Amino acid sequence: MPERDLALLTKAARAAGDIALRYWKNAPKAWDKADTSPVTEADLACNDKIQSILRSARPDYGWLSEETPDDKARLNTEYQFIIDPIDGTRAFIAGEKHFSHSLAVAHQGRITAAVVYLPALDKLYTATEFGPALCDGLPIRCSRKSLADDPNILTSKHTLDPAHWPNGMPQFQRSFRASLAYRLCLVADGSFDGMITFMDAWEWDIAAGSLIAARAGATVSDRYGLALDFNALTAQSPGTFACAPLLHDDLMGLTNA
C-alpha cells in the first residue's frame, strides 16, 4: 500500500509542478489570508489539481491541505492525505527556485508515504515508511555531525533567542530556505546537518519532509524531543527538530531544562 500511495503522490506532485511553473515568474495574482500568510492563484490551482488526482483514486482517505477548509471528518478516517500545494509561497512570489510541493499519506498518526517535489529544480524527494529515502531515485543519507563539528543548521533568526536555550547557547553556522519541507529534505540528503524551529509547525509543512529525513537516518522530533504525531485535531506540531542523531541529542540537552 505505501508503494502504491507513493506512486500516486508522485503523479500528483509532478502535475502540480507543471501548473506551478506556468505561474512562476509570470506575476501570479497574490493576496494575504486572514492569518497574513500569502497565497496565490497558483497555490489554489495546484491544490485543485492535487485534490482531483488523489481523491479520485482514494475517495476514502481523509483530506488536510493548507488551501482547503479543514473538514474534521478526516479524524474518523483510517488514512489521510496531508498536502501543502506550494510550500514556500513567498519564495515562489519572489521568483526564487526553492519552493516545493509537499504531499504525504498518514495512517494512525504516522506518515507512511511522502513526496517533496521542487519543480523549478526538477528535484524529487521520496520515502515510504519502511523504505529508503531517495532523491531522484538515488538513496540519500543525513550527516553524522555533532555540535562539536561546527554544524550548519537551517533555521530562522528567531531560534537564536537565548530564551530558547536555558542550558547554554549552541554555536553553529546558520542558513535558511523558505520551504520548511525542503529544509527537511536538505537534512535528509546531507546538504545541511539539521533544521530546527521552535515555532508551531503546521502538519502540511512537515508531514512529507519529516518521513524523508527520518528514513535518511536523521532524528526527527518536536521541540521537546517527542515523536511527531499527525492528523491531530489542531493539525500542528510544537516545533520541529530534524538533525543528525548526535547533533539532535546535543541540541536537546541545551534546550530542555
UniProtKB/TrEMBL annotation:
It comes from the Bacteria. Keywords: Hydrolase, Magnesium, Metal-binding. GO terms for molecular function: 3'(2'),5'-bisphosphate nucleotidase activity. SUPFAM superfamilies: Carbohydrate phosphatase. CDD domains: CysQ (cd01638). It is an enzyme of class 3 (hydrolase). Pfam families: Inositol_P (PF00459). Gene3D superfamilies: 3.40.190.80, Fructose-1,6-Bisphosphatase, subunit A, domain 1. Its EC number is 3.1.3.7. InterPro entries: Inositol_monophosphatase-like (IPR000760), Inositol_monophosphatase_CS (IPR020550). Belongs to the inositol monophosphatase superfamily. This is 3'(2'),5'-bisphosphate nucleotidase CysQ. It comes from Cypionkella sinensis.
